[in-house]
Specification:
By secondary structure, this protein is mainly alpha-helical. The protein has 3 helices and no strands. It comes from Natrinema saccharevitans.
Length: 81
């Protein structure tokens, strides 16, 4: 089994504090960096949907939001009665 290599990295105090806040209990700073570096950005999703698929998804979300609002309004009316 090979020996682990280590590198020194300089961080600004602000960058260090941000990294420290993201660090989970029992996690080393290396573990934290590996976890964060492996996260995906929403920008990674750009271009996955066609314009038509994106429009359909936006419409479906908008419709569901409207139905949810209507349901909440009906519930509020019943509670006020």
């Amino acid at each position: 089994m090979g020996e682990t290599e280590y590198r020194n990295v300089r961080l600004t105090e602000e960058a260090y504090q941000r990294l420290k806040r993201r660090k989970k209990a029992g996690e080393s700073f290396s573990d934290t960096v590996e976890r964060i570096a492996g996260e995906r950005s929403l920008l990674d999703l750009a271009g996955i949907l066609s314009d038509e698929e994106a429009r359909e998804m936006r419409d479906a979300i908008r419709d569901r939001d409207e139905r949810s609002r209507d349901e909440l309004d009906r519930l509020a009316d019943r509670l006020d009665s």
